[in-house]
Amino acid sequence: MFTPPPPFSGYGLGLRKEHYRDFLDGDVPVDFVEVISENFMVDGGQPRDILRRVGEKHPVALHGVSMSIGSADGVDIAYLRRLKALADEVQPLFVSDHLSWSRVAGFSSHDLLPVPYTEEALALVCRNIEVAQDVLGRSMLFENPSSYVAFDGATMSEWEFLAEMSKRTGCGLLLDVNNVFVSASNHGFDTHAFLRGIPAARVRQVHLAGHSQGPGLLIDTHDQPVCDDVWALYRTAMSLLGPVATMIERDDAIPPLAELLDELDIARGLGTVAREAA
Amino acid sequence: MKLAQWQEGFRDWLTTGSATSADAFGDRAWPGLTVYQNNYRTQLVTCLEVSYPQLLRRVGEGNFRNAAMAHIDAHPPRGWTLDTYGADFVDTLVALFPRNPDLHELAWIEWSLSEAFVAPDASPLAREALWSVNWDEARLRLTPSLRHRVATTNADDVWSALQNDADSVPDGEMLDVAGALVVWRQGFHSRLRRLDADDDAALRLAIGKGHFAAMCDTLVMRLGEEAGVARAGALLADWLDAGIVVGVDD
Fold it and tell me: Per-residue pLDDT tens for A173-223?
């Protein structure tokens, strides 16, 4: 069992190429930055240099997309060792990935595919998390993904799965409020039941992002501002969870930094209100 | 259904898009499965477009998309990082455009530039370090970012014109005499250069960890005593300045 990192309740942004210069040259008012781990799991060159220099100014969270913690094949030890080398160098606030899978039988989809919420999957995911945390030598956070397919044979809800997974492995949770909204819309569950069902003390970080309307389904596109419905859900989440590190996650149609900082100010305001009300 | 079987079925759906593979997930799953199928293909096409921006401009969107789709069908991704997905795209180009070595070499240039960009770091060797070298035994250590191949076309001129948004981009042409293409990283910048046959012969020896003396002998044999020795000295100076040489073992 690993000791979770101390609580941290600042406000951050995902560090994207379009804003490297702003972060290197300026004094960006954020409490932390989050990077996509795989973008920096390279041998050398400018990406590692930029991360080192930004890391001298801001705490860094590592957020991965390729751990494939729900893979029936188990976790990729070579991948984990590479991630550990990066984490040892960066000394991140958090190391996170998704409750999803992407790899099976030598194939890697490079997408966050859904895990069926069954006892078999729960046991496997917990086993994989234990291996990952053991190799990394630290606790991880796992994020609820947006999903577009529900498994007919599911025996528990997503929040029940997350709660049990966290209880068995000691891992923390990264609550993506937009993903809760998207998945609830796609599968018809109650967002508030989700928020009440996850263990509040395990939620160490929150993601906020935008989505798009697809044909009959909401799609987690990360190319839009956070919408009013997701802000409302975030307000509810903050009242239930208390102060939690929160960040805006934009991966496409990246706007000028000032626009993201304006969104982050909204989160800061809602978080402050929730903190004062607690 | 066991989880492994379920995941293999999901993979089959992504890679084939066949109705048979979708049936196992039930009728309700169909709209969601199409989202994942679209995400999978879109992401891989985008990955290839980002990896080969000048090739895309050269062949046009339609041809590039056809090549990308053929590649995705024949080469499902296997690695944990998308950064490596386009590594064998040149194989697809050879199959689709067998008479266009200029396109194959253009693709090699773009892939090598991106590989060099994140290759292991290595500090260039300072000239002062050469003062005490035993040149009879010396072997040059080259930067790990170095990539090298035979050049048969003017693909480097094409790439440079496209990269710099030149007013006119040359047609692809065969070279009168084959040379070599070299890519490496200097500081944080990937570099591209075409070598003539003499410089290529010298570099091949260095890549093969041959003695510097053998490199001199080769150049003397090709160019004559005076010109060969002068070329060896000039090459060494150039490779030092360019950050290609990062050490000398003697």
Answer: 999 999 999 999 999 999 999 999 999 999 999 999 999 999 899 999 999
CA-to-CA separations, A264 to A28, A101, A233, A250, B1, in angstroms, rounded? 12, 30, 15, 12, 44
Pairs across A and B, CB distance < 8 A: 109
Specify whether B80 is located in the same domain as B199.
Answer: no
C-alpha span between A159 and A141 (Å, rounded): 15
Contacts of B83 in chain A (CB under 8 A): 38, 42
d(CA A139, CA A170): 7
Mean pLDDT of A68-92: 97
Residue-number span of the structural domain to which B93 is assigned = 1-99
Query: How far is Cα A110 from Cα A104, in angstroms, rounded to an integer?
Result: 11
Q: What share of chain B is helix, strand, coil (3-state, %, to 5)?
A: 60, 15, 25
Closest approach of B209 to chain A, Cα-based (Å): 23
How close B120 gets to chain A, by Cα (Å)? 4
Whether residue B129 is found in the same domain as residue B93: no
Residue B32 distance to chain A (closest CA, Å): 4
Q: Which pLDDT tens digit goes with each residue over B224-237?
A: 999 999 999 999 99
Name the residue with tokens 């290839």: B48
ipTM of the prediction: 0.93
In a domain, A27, yes or no: yes
**Which of the four pLDDT bands, split at 50, 70 and 90, describes residue A2?**
low
CB-CB neighbors (< 8 A) of A216 in chain B:
31
Contact yes or no for A107 and B78 at CB 8 A: yes
The full length of chain A comes to 278
CB contact under 8 A, B11 and A46: no
Q: Do B31 and A217 touch (CB under 8 A)?
A: yes
Kindly give the interhelix angle for B3-16 and A119-136, rounded to the nearest 10 degrees: 90
3-state secondary structure of A127: helix
